[in-house]
Amino acid sequence: MKVEMEDVDDSTLCDSVSSLVEGCRLPVHMKGTSDWPLAEIVSIKDLDGLKVYYVHYVDFNKRLDEWVTEQSLDTRKVHFPRKDAAPGTGVSTPKKVQIGSGISNSGQVSRPASPVSTNSELLNGNAVLAAALQKKINRKRKGPSLEGEDSQDGPPSQQSAATGGPRQSGSMVSHHDDIVTRMKNIEMIEIGPHRVRPWYFAPYPQEMVHLACIYICEFCLKYRKSRKCLERHLIKCNLRHPPGNEIYRKDNISFFEIDGRKNKVYAQNLCLLAKLFLDHKTLYYDTDPFLFYVMTVFDHRGFHIVGYFSKEKESTEDYNVACILTLPPYQRKGYGKLLIEFSYELSKFEGKTGSPEKPLSDLGLLSYRSYWAQTILEILLSAKPIGENEKAQITINEICELTSIKKEDVISTLQNLNLINYYKGQYIITLSKEIIQQHYKAMETRQIRIDSKALHWTPKDWGKRAKW
Ligand SMILES: [Zn+2]
């Protein structure tokens, strides 16, 4: 039975799963919740006669994409893909769809567990910014694709052809490749004592894909097919910390600086691991122009990777961070802020302001917004009046100099916090009791801080060198 709707011309009532194709949109039961948000079918496959569907929830981050069975699909209202639509464009431009079966509206489904909606820091406008950012993220990034990133024991060019990753050509990305890179391909990783379920696609070699688990050496980041293989590796691997120079140590926290040219294999394996949790369209397999700052926690077994950020040796646009990631087992413990704080500490040593490369991930944006707010409020609250009965004065430029936060980020933060007022011909910043209380409360949770005295580092002028 096929019923044409008047206002939604390409929607059909359909009671059969057999008519479902890739690109169809319909309400899908999201695992672990009681919600049925609108989702797009990205891929369909046959598992011994059982059809399974890879779905993307239209208004949610891709990390929630998952395989579901027919029972999770509400086939009473299916929105079929338009024949003339370009493939793969559905995600970035969701159309309004009327959905039956008690689901109110495509844009209004909220999920309690969503990290964006549960964040209650003293910021506003996040939703708007996050939405704007999502648009940016959906745009393709420029730069070479991750050709040959799959080789871990030698230069990419020697192995890439044999291992057959999905993005070998590096130039044109076919529709098929686009679908492949939209889907998570690694079931599970084990790194050190942690077992972690990846969030996104990463171009590990074909033979590693669809294993129940990939085993990663937590020190050199090489990957193995089985625990046995990793155990064999660990006998030979004598690294107990990332390669490169330890440039910071305070209590059990250390930072190592790794040159992407000198430690290419490590840098590539780090990028590959990071890609599992970063939704970037492409990665730079050419790690030469980057430095990698890896943060570790120390115990009797060694220095364990917590997170990292990469940084261009030379940035024409004052970027002080390219990619930044806290590994999931260490998230929500203040380490993300510590990474950000460290990146600005390096900028202070360089005597310049910096900003992270855009687009930021949704979680990255939240961390940065919160870091900027806390750092700027800290400066404002410590500003002393010049004379008695005077108000403290500080210029935007002074805030930039003290924090190394780029001017546009300082201004947008002050605006987001609603602190700027115009009064009797000049701009004044008013800090309400409420803002101050919220600030001190937030700062109580930031127990670990970067201590500039523990940083032993001299910036290099990479521009003066003929080659990296
Ligand atoms: Zn190793």
Automatic annotation (TrEMBL):
The keyword Acyltransferase applies. It is found in: Nucleus. GO terms for cellular component: NuA4 histone acetyltransferase complex; nucleus; polytene chromosome interband. Keywords: Acetylation, Acyltransferase, DNA damage, DNA repair, Metal-binding, Nucleus, Transcription, Transcription regulation, Transferase, Zinc, Zinc-finger. Its main location: nucleus. Residues 79-120, 139-174 are annotated as: Disordered. It holds the Pfam family MOZ_SAS. The active site is at 357 (proton donor/acceptor). One of its GO terms (biological process) is DNA repair-dependent chromatin remodeling. Residues 181-459 form the MYST-type HAT domain. This is histone acetyltransferase. It comes from Rhynchophorus ferrugineus (Red palm weevil).
